[in-house]
Design a protein that fits this description.
Elements (H helix, E strand, L loop, with lengths): L1 E5 L9 H15 L3 E6 L12 E3 L4 E5 L2 E5 L6 H11 L3 E5 L6 H8 L3 E6 L7 H14 L4 E4 L2 H8 L7 E2 L6 H5 L13 E6 L8 H14 L3 E7 L4 H9 L5 E5 L6 H7 L2 E4 L9 H9 L2 E5 L2 H4 L8 E4 L4 H12 L2 H15 L4 H24 L12
Parallel strand pairs: 1-2, 1-6, 2-3, 6-7, 7-8, 8-9, 10-11, 10-13, 11-12, 13-14, 14-15
Antiparallel strand pairs: 4-5
Helix pairs in contact: 1-14, 2-3, 7-12, 10-13
């Protein structure tokens, strides 16, 4: 199949949606398909696993506590129309379908099978609230709708009710489970808690820092390692003001180095406060073989069972967070049991499995389109025994 995967977000900046598209394309190539990626970009795309076309220059917009880098250019329509005419794709797969401008314009001009995937989970969405009447005209252009989690379904169906096929984000299990050496500076006998996330309020780091005060009182030989894509200046200032020791910050850590940080930790902690459609960081920790303490929010509870792969605690509750961390840091046998369950659980989210589910959905949609257009399946797609 010829498949175009459309992202609304700056291809020059790593993001959950762009990583999702990259891994799908990688798996599609391995299976003999022809993926094609289209996205806005702040710089030319290089080194892709398939052809990548940059359309539109992105600008930053603040949405639900994050910054979305999308293009608002009104000059994308012509290029998109020509691209569709020249390639005759079997599938047009748009991610965050109603984000300006690329996904909407692909739906506008596409005449083939169209699929949309929703990734976000928020309390509200100003684009949907104020643009719902205009957007409704494009809902009918979607032959198939995917959401990455029940939390994402809950968010989108309040604006656009209907059936959403839940196919989760995948995780690069091989990358996180590979045998790597821990970082030497963290191999001094202390018990290490690892946080991985951007320095955004919704990632909940301030609650973890407050909780860590209690952790250190109970376990003096403990350390908090904070890793993320961004600068943690204000958090570092807060740590200094509180005279909190053994908190280490590492900004802009490359993806390739993350397994070594996981390998150096005893417990992974995700104190996020909300707006998480799926617990991808939890799945990465499971793949890396780490027990987890996380907030009991919908996106996380969908991938982690309390008491099995880790512990879930009330969001924004430093006391509960500290108690759970202390409990696991003091109980290595329980941590090991959780690690074993986590490694089994994460296998369901391998990219080879996720991509095959997406391809199977494409096949069903193409089959259904042919039934509608021709009244019966073509010979090559006729079911056995018919």
């Amino acid at each position: 199949m010829k498949i175009v995967l459309v992202s609304p977000y700056d291809w020059g900046v790593s993001s959950g949606v762009n990583n999702h598209i990259h891994h799908l394309a990688e798996q599609f190539v391995l299976l003999g398909h022809q993926p094609y990626i289209v996205a806005p970009g702040s710089r030319p795309a290089t080194g892709g696993v398939c052809p990548i076309t940059i359309i539109g220059r992105p600008i930053p917009l603040r949405v639900s506590g994050s910054v979305a880098r999308i293009t608002l250019s009104l000059r994308t329509a012509g290029r998109i129309r020509r691209l569709l005419e020249e390639n005759e794709f079997d599938i047009v797969h748009v991610h965050e379908p109603f984000m300006p401008q690329l996904p909407i314009n692909f739906l506008r001009y596409s005449t083939t099978v169209n699929v949309g995937t929703w990734h976000a989970a928020r309390d509200s969405n100003f684009i949907y609230v104020y643009g719902r009447r205009l957007i409704k005209r494009w809902v009918s252009k979607l032959d198939g709708k995917i959401a990455v989690s029940p939390a994402a379904v809950k968010h989108i169906e309040q604006y656009f009710p209907g059936y959403y096929n839940i196919i989760p984000n995948g995780v690069d299990v091989e990358h996180f489970s590979r045998d790597v050496e821990p970082l030497p500076e963290f191999c001094d006998g202390k018990l290490n808690v690892l946080f991985v996330g951007r320095p955004e309020a919704r990632k909940g780091l301030k609650y973890l820092l407050r909780a860590f005060i209690g952790v250190q009182r109970a376990i003096p030989e403990s350390r908090l390692i904070v890793v993320g894509a961004g600068k943690f200046d204000r958090y570092e200032r807060a740590v200094r003001s509180a005279h909190l020791r053994d908190v280490v910050f590492r900004s802009y850590v490359p993806f390739a180095e993350l397994p070594r940080y996981h390998k150096s930790a005893h417990v992974f902690c995700a104190p996020n406060t909300g707006f998480e459609s799926q617990g991808l960081v939890l799945l990465e920790a499971m793949a890396a073989g780490r027990a987890i303490v996380a907030s009991n929010i919908e996106g996380f509870a969908g991938v982690l069972t309390h008491g099995v792969e880790g512990l879930l605690v009330r969001p924004e509750d430093p006391l509960a967070l500290a108690a759970a961390l202390i409990e696991l840091l003091r109980d290595p046998a329980r941590r090991e049991a959780m690690v074993a369950h986590g490694r089994e659980r994460v296998q369901h989210f391998r990219w080879d499995r996720v991509s095959q589910r997406v391809l199977s959905y494409y096949e069903r949609l193409i089959y259904e389109r042919r039934l509608v257009e021709h009244g019966e399946p073509s010979e090559e797609r006729r079911p056995l025994g018919v």
